[in-house]
Write a structure and sequence with these properties.
Elements: H1 2-20, H2 25-28, H3 35-42, H4 58-63, H5 68-92, H6 101-123, H7 125-131, H8 142-150, H9 157-187, E1 189-190, E2 193-194, H10 223-240
Antiparallel strand pairs: 1-2
């Protein structure tokens, strides 16, 4: 019994050390950019994308993709929140009682979201106003909470950090692609700059494509078009990668 107690205490001590270290003992033996670690970053960009494959976080694609700038800022904000929340929850994973793990996760994510929101208000106030409540809604984003539950609670800090960055980047990539096409085709601009020419009162006063009679597609600025663009991305992705197509009985 004495030996059993000694072994148990040593095991607990090892777990505590593992939580404090940035990488666990098993992760230290693995190269920091091994194939498995690279997959944590690359898979969410394509084969396991949170939006187009897991179909999570669709609401953001509707609300903040009318212009490219807020979409890029939102993507960066989600990367920061997911990366650091995954790290923190992974560090605390052996200390969090199972009954209150959701509450702890919400507190960690909410704290990081408030910090990001204050930074945006301080350094990018106009974009912060455009994003409005959607920065705060990162707290309830199913992608963030899903990765905390599915990955951070069962893996080391370094791997959890990579998983957070990878999934947030995959999410942000889709937002940026959707915003690119919606702003370009809907208003002829990118980041607020006219890229298709200037639309004057007449053809003679117009430049670029507008001089040839081109008209902006106002439908692209409506929320349903975000879903249509996401649907087209899903179609292209599955046409290129057939293994993502679900088999029907």
């Amino acid at each position: 019994m004495a030996n059993e107690k000694k072994y148990t205490s040593e095991e607990k001590e090892a777990k505590k050390k593992e939580m404090i270290l940035f990488m666990s003992n098993s992760e230290e033996k693995e190269h920091f950019l091994s194939k498995a670690n690279r997959k944590l970053l690359s898979d969410p960009l394509d084969d396991n994308n949170p939006i187009t494959v897991q179909v999570l976080g669709i609401c953001s694609a509707l609300a903040i993709t009318v212009q490219l700038e807020p979409a890029v800022v939102m993507a960066i904000a989600v990367v920061a929140v997911m990366a650091f929340s995954n790290m923190i929850i992974s560090m605390l994973r052996n200390m969090i009682p199972s009954r209150i793990r959701i509450i702890v996760q919400l507190v960690v994510v909410a704290s990081l979201v408030v910090l990001v929101d204050q930074i945006l208000k301080a350094y990018a106030y106009d974009v912060s106003k455009q994003l409005s409540v959607f920065i705060g809604l990162i707290i309830t984003n199913c992608i963030v909470m899903g990765r905390l539950e599915a990955f951070a609670l069962g893996n080391g800090v370094y791997k959890s950090f990579l998983d957070g960055v990878g999934n947030a980047a995959g999410y942000g990539l889709i937002l940026i692609i959707v915003a690119f096409f919606r702003e370009l085709l809907g208003s002829g601009k990118l980041f607020g700059f006219e890229v298709l020419g200037h639309k004057g009162a007449t053809l003679a006063e117009s430049t670029g494509l507008y001089a040839f009679g081109y008209e902006n597609n106002g439908l692209m600025l409506l929320s349903p078009m975000a879903l249509i663009v996401v649907g087209l991305i899903i179609w292209v992705q599955r046409a290129r990668n057939r293994k993502l197509i679900e088999e029907t009985n």
